[in-house]
Amino acid sequence: MTGVNLGKQHPDLYRDVIALSKNADAAVAEAGLDPLLGELVKIRVSQLNGCAFCLRMHTRDAITRGETTDRLAVVAAWWESQYFTAQEQAALALAEDVTRLPVPEPQAWDNGSLNEQQVSAISWLAIVMNTWNRLAIRSHYPVAP
């Protein structure tokens, strides 16, 4: 057996993840963060997890929201570019911390650019995106041209 579509096997759980995802997106908006920043977080988390399905989806969503190809091209190395604001850098670093679960130490994302509500919203968004990546990867969602 190469893969089992987890959503089809347990549709109630899948619907719960959809609801959680919508709530995380709403938390981002309620925290006053740009939805485009949410897409960048989803893309970065998906890069770290190696989820081609989610990468394609959220890259397309980011382009639809007005993201540039230049910024998308360097999001995997955001810290080496001058394309991202301090808030975007903080959010991307926080999403990486949530995804990698580092040993506690001074946090690079804690530069004062995000308030507590925004830190919580980005953390939830990264947690949900990690869940989606794992669902897509474990279910072997097809990614073809």
Task: Describe what you observe in this structure.
The chain is mainly alpha-helical. The chain has a single domain (6-139), classed as AhpD-like, CATH 1.20.1290. It has 7 helices and no strands. The protein has helices at 6-9, 11-30, 35-49, 52-64, 69-74, 86-100, 116-139. Helix 2 runs antiparallel to helix 7 (116-139), helix 3 (35-49) crosses helix 7 (116-139) and helix 6 (86-100) packs across helix 7. It is globular, with a radius of gyration of 15 Å. The mean pLDDT is 90.
Looking at how many chains there are and whether they match, the oligomeric state comes to: single chain
Number of contiguous helices: 7
What is the averaged pLDDT score? 90
CATH architecture classification name:
Up-down Bundle
CATH uppermost class: Mainly Alpha
State the secondary-structure class.
mainly alpha
Question: What is the percent of helical residues?
Answer: 55-70%
C-alpha termini separation: 25 Å
The low-confidence parts are: none
- Indicate the radius of gyration in whole angstroms: 15 Å
The CATH superfamily label reads: AhpD-like
> What's the order of the H and E elements?
HHHHHHH
Number of strands: 0
Hey, roughly how much beta strand do the residues contain? under 5%
Largest sheet geometry: none
- Tell me the count of domains: 1
Overall shape: it is globular
Q: What's the CATH topology name?
A: AhpD-like
